[in-house]
């Protein structure tokens, strides 16, 4: 059962919106490689604001994701793509409809 999640929120540098969207679209392939990542959404919240919501069954899977390839790529490319360091918030999932 999914009990753990993360919500990351970040703002694209002016003129980098398409690059951020492309980066997030490419992240889907990496998320599909993570057995512990049960749900993964890349979101565009406004013209320049983006987010990622992902969910996990265990805290160990959430921690593995936080140190995995998506997080590494996000931090490596962050200074070129984002106005500031992404905000990453842990979330406790109270209910899921499948």
Automatic annotation (TrEMBL):
Organism listed in the record: Pseudoduganella ginsengisoli
The keyword Oxidoreductase belongs to this UniProt entry's keyword annotation: yes
Gene3D superfamilies (UniProt xref): 3.30.70.100
Protein name as annotated: Antibiotic biosynthesis monooxygenase
Keywords associated with the record: Monooxygenase, Oxidoreductase
GO MF terms, alphabetically ordered: monooxygenase activity
């Amino acid at each position: 059962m999914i009990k753990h999640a993360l919500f990351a929120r970040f703002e694209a540098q002016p003129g980098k919106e398409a690059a951020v969207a492309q980066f997030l679209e490419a992240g889907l392939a990496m998320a599909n490689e993570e057995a512990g990542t049960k749900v993964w959404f890349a979101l565009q919240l406004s013209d320049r604001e983006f987010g990622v919501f992902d969910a996990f069954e265990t805290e160990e899977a959430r921690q593995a994701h936080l140190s995995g390839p998506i997080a590494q790529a996000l931090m490596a490319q962050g200074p070129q793509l984002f106005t500031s360091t992404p905000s990453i918030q842990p979330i406790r999932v109270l209910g899921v409809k499948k």
